[in-house]
Amino acid sequence: MQECKCPVFLQADTYYRLLFGGNQSGKTYSGVMEDAIHFTLEYPDWYPEALRFKNPTSGRIIVKDFPKGVGEVLEPALLRSIHPRYIEKATRNSQGFLSKVIGRNKSRFDIITHEMDPMSAEGWQ
To answer: pTM for this structure?
Structure first.
């Protein structure tokens, strides 16, 4: 097993995880790393076997708002973590913020905010 240079959060082999912390405590980094791993389906040796997906994934990232939550924080972190070669299509909302990403492997995720109608959080099917 190779050494993990990541938050312990990512090594937990529990189905549910919860991460609390103050500013600059690693919440976004941990979440984005988890998202990138599942999106690409390229799991590091240290990632718990029981939590690995074999097929393309569908996910949803919920942030406080688009200007700060996506524009200043989430999108730059995602672009540092997911290499463009994995991305088939990235869609932006009417404000110009990243709102959906589809991978070449058919994994996908949407980005929504707390400001949106709660029905936006309903499942796709």
So the answer is: 0.83
